[in-house]
Write a structure and sequence with these properties.
79% of the residues lie in helices and 0% in strands. By secondary structure, the chain is mostly helical. Helix 3 packs antiparallel against helix 16 and helix 6 packs antiparallel against helix 12. The longest helix has 33 residues.
Length: 410
């Protein structure tokens, strides 16, 4: 791959920069907005603990399924066109969720919403590689931070908006943000039709690369780390408010605020981790730090849930620093656009399959045990699994180098 030269961040790519940040703002809003207001939703439709567990598992399930097929969409249309289509799907899904009058429609609307988000998840790393090959660490930091901010606000304002305007408004108002995000990408598509100054030339996704990535240790180790982050994050998004009400005596407003605190810890992680990872010789230390933070957070919630609750939630919220780390490593561990698309789809697809078990297993363990200690111990053990993949991820070997070595060994 040709070496890239640094150029001003805004030069010839302002719309792409704005578009990337607006897409990032839409990729998590629907994840954490329901759990603080399930009590209000239950007034209009019956929801069991299993129903809540299913809805909590839908984000990683959809992210997994559509994360795997997203590279196939990119083979048939431009990245920009697929990104616009994903935003339209998000708008439709959010609208259906807001209008739902049964669990089935709520679940279907959620699945549609998360399907659109899944495609955006996979396409953002190669989009960054396309338009900002000279600013990968910076752009990854920016959009990972925006994603964290977009996760912070929905649980923080969900209860007040639902109390004042109804839960349907609280859920449906986020469709406007997706509509806004479509605008700059339409401009990018129009401009690409009339100008060739759109960033570095790139390769089209290689179908052979999509198959070969399944046989590489770097892909599997990154998928494990991503899966650990996903499983723990989505389990907390689904169950943290109820857990805190039962163990720490938090009321709905307090539990929503603490869920927002949990989500907000992704902001410093998103700002710092990609920049640190792009400069560190051994990124394994970042993985070990994330695992330790998970352990401290869960240990505190098990032993002293009502004492310094904010501290344990903060530590547990910093554990998913593994997420922005994986995002930047998708680009740092590939040399080509084709490699980035293939690795992004594989890591996020497999990682979200693992993540889908978080809300479901936690719900089942809570129902069986009647308490939260066993579910928290389960999460603590899964976090420790992330440390095992750290040694492989830390090796500065690219996907293409690994594939070349395999080919030469045959």
């Amino acid at each position: 791959m040709a070496r890239t030269t640094n150029r001003p961040l805004w030069l010839g790519r302002t719309l792409a920069l704005i578009g990337i940040l607006l897409v990032a703002a839409n990729l998590r809003t629907a994840v954490a907005e329901l759990s603080p207001i399930f009590a209000e939703i239950r007034v209009d439709m019956p929801l069991t603990s299993v129903d809540i567990g299913v809805i909590g598992a839908l984000p990683p399930i959809c992210f997994a399924v559509f994360g795997i097929v997203a590279p196939l969409f990119a083979k048939r249309m431009s990245l920009e066109a697929v990104l616009i289509a994903s935003l339209v799907v998000i708008v439709a899904g959010v609208a259906l969720r807001a209008l739902a009058d049964s669990f089935v429609l709520l679940a279907v609307g959620s699945a549609i919403t998360f399907a659109g988000m899944a495609v955006g998840n996979v396409l953002l790393p190669p989009i960054v590689k396309r338009y900002f090959p000279d600013r990968i660490g910076l752009l990854t930091s920016l959009y990972a931070t925006v994603m964290s901010i977009s996760t912070l606000f929905p649980p923080l304002i969900a209860v007040p908006v639902a109390d004042g305007l109804g839960w349907r408004t609280s859920v449906g108002m986020w469709a406007a943000l997706a509509v806004i995000a479509i605008v700059p990408w339409i401009g990018v598509v129009v401009r690409r039709g009339s100008s060739s100054d759109q960033g570095a030339d790139i390769e089209e996704p290689d179908p052979r690369m999509l198959g070969r990535v399944w046989h590489t240790s770097i892909a599997w180790s990154l998928a494990v780390v991503f899966g650990v982050s996903s499983l723990n994050a989505y389990a907390m998004f689904a169950w943290l408010p109820e857990l805190l009400r039962d163990t720490a005596g938090a009321d709905p407003v307090q539990s929503g605020a603490l869920l927002s605190l949990f989500a907000g810890m992704g902001i410093p992680a998103g700002l710092l981790i990609p920049v640190l990872a792009s400069r560190m010789r051994n990124v394994g230390w970042l993985i070990y730090a994330g695992v330790v933070l998970f352990v401290v957070g869960y240990g505190g919630l098990i032993l002293w849930p009502a004492a310094a609750t904010w501290l344990w939630v903060t530590c547990a919220g910093l554990g998913p620093l593994l997420f922005p780390l994986c995002l930047v490593l998708i680009n740092l561990r590939t040399r080509t656009h084709a490699g980035a698309v293939a690795l992004s789809g594989f890591v996020q697809g497999i990682g979200y399959v693992v993540g889908a078990f978080g809300p479901l297993v936690v719900g089942v363990l809570h129902q069986i045990s009647g308490a939260w200690t066993v579910p928290l111990i389960f999460l603590l053990i899964t976090a420790l699994a992330g440390a095992l993949a750290g040694a492989v991820v830390a090796r500065p070997v690219t996907l293409e180098d690994h594939l070349r070595s395999r080919a030469e060994a045959r």
